Amino acid sequence: MANNETERVHCLIIGSGPAGYTAAIYAARANIKPVLYQGIQPGGQLTITTEVENYPGYADGIQGPEMMIDFEKQAKRMGADIRYGLATKVDFTGPVHKVWIDEEKLIEADAVIIATGASAKWLNIESEQRLNGYGVSACAVCDGFFFRNKEVAIVGAGDTACEEALYLSKLATNVHMIVRKDENGMRASKVMQERAKNTPNIKIYWNSETVEVLGETKVEGVKIKNNKSGEEQTIPISAFFVAIGHQPNSNIFKNWIDMDEAGYIKTVPGSTKTNIKGVFAAGDVQDKIYRQAVTAAGSGCMAALDAERYLGESGLN
Predict the structure, then answer these.
(1) Residue 301 designated active-site
(2) CA–CA separation, 111 vs 97, rounded Å?
(3) Would residue 139 show up in a list of annotated catalytic residues for this protein?
(4) Distance (Å) of CA 301 to CA 118, 218, 281, 306
(5) Cα–Cα distance for residue pair 223/213, rounded to 1 Å
(6) Rounded to an integer, what distance in angstroms lies between the CA atom of residue 114 and that of residue 316?
(7) What is the pTM of this model?
(8) Taking the CB of the first residue and of the last residue of the chain, which one, N or C, has fewer CB atoms within 10 A?
(9) Are 215 and 239 in contact (CB under 8 A)?
């Protein structure tokens, strides 16, 4: 198709993680002819994950990228139109929803499912990125199991960091928690702080920052620095977890869709409906609590069913 061409579609899905692909599977089986654009990271966060053991149906576990290929193949087999491309602008003024792809092509859709996910925030140090998937992780619930009876570290100071430290404390021998500020600057709620402080195998390093994650092919340690004294120390560990937050990939929708203060899309409780009729949100872009592949897939199913119902009630299917 030539650039600047306009195409009308029945159901447009933006994003290609578990939520987007599951929505495509259900929408295709319902014959609402979904078109899915994969976005900047086809397969989403799972493409930077190694072993996935907690998704039902994979008895022996599966590599994250391989799992997303399976999802894509299934969506294609059902008849979903899977395409490369990034949504760069939207206009949700009228009943026909306009979405521009790669700043050039205009898609006009009767229904839109937003499944753009959320990206983990990183420390942006070279060793962290190099060892991502080899002991460095942004999800303790996903990957903590692989480091049972080993020493691990986690960086972060919010409720999520405390929750993940507590989760890891049940699996690891010791959890080294790296906090940039002192006790008064910790963002976590008091109850979560107390739980972390009172867990015997969680050691908190106040006023500390990560200098480097150590190891050539896997995590073997972490070097930290006290930002008050300047003192550095090395801690031998087998895994390094980053829990400094996630950023929902929702920026292009901010003038149209209701969001919370962090940018997560608000949906009507018990549904995937947004404040715009015919626009639905599924997966991590609207879920700041669970952020699991299986919960994202479940909400992708919900979004497709909600979209099918909307199209039927509007006489558009």
Answers:
(1) no
(2) 7
(3) yes
(4) 18, 37, 11, 9
(5) 6
(6) 19
(7) 0.82
(8) N
(9) no
